[in-house]
Amino acid sequence: MTGKSESEKHLWFLNTLVKIRVSESEGEDRISVLEHHAPAGDSPPLHIHHTEDEIFQVLEGEFRFVIDKQERQLSAGEFLLAPKGVPHQYLVESKKGGRWLTITTPGDFERFVQATARPAERRELPAPAGPPTPEVAKLLTETAAKYGIEIIGQPLH
Q1: Within a domain: residue 2?
Q2: Where in the sequence is the domain holding 109, given as residue range(s)?
Q3: What is the tens place of the pLDDT at every residue in 127-156?
Q4: Based on the structure, what is the number of domains in the chain?
Q5: Closest Cα to residue 85, out of 45, 44, 112, 50?
Q6: Cα distances (Å, whole numbers) of residue 129 to 13, 14, 133
Q7: CA distances from 34 to 10, 118, 136 (A)
Q8: 96-109: per-residue pLDDT in tens?
Q9: I need a surface site. Which of 21, 87, 117, 138 has the fewest CB within 10 A?
Q10: Rounded to whole angstroms, what are the CA distances from 134 to 96, 112, 138, 140?
Q11: CATH code, domain with 30
Q12: Is residue 38 included in any domain, yes or no?
């Protein structure tokens, strides 16, 4: 398959715009490719994927990644691997935000995003929502666990 994915869709996932480039349902190996666009300062909580490796490919912007307590700066064209079972997170450091791809197999992360996101009303970032309320954070943590993702810490600042 080349060009536009049959399942390509845009979602608002927390403070990010996510485009599903390749859905895990499209191939036998359940590979998932998601394109993310996030504002400056965006950071997920420290977390572990228990069922999948995660590859990050930076398309635009400057990022600080922390993988297994090791910090690494990445910019456009660079990539890294967050192995299955290893704590990791990132911080978007560029003022104009950042864009990157995540590549995972199987597509548990994609299914988590689809379960917690909402359809994007526009092809732009959602209105800033700030950090989730304690109730929303609890729900996200519980939902993440259903997809093999364990939340173990706070976002980077």
Answers
A1: no
A2: 10-151
A3: 988 788 899 999 999 999 999 999 999 999
A4: 1
A5: 50
A6: 11, 8, 10
A7: 10, 15, 23
A8: 999 999 999 999 99
A9: 138
A10: 28, 19, 6, 10
A11: 2.60.120.10
A12: yes
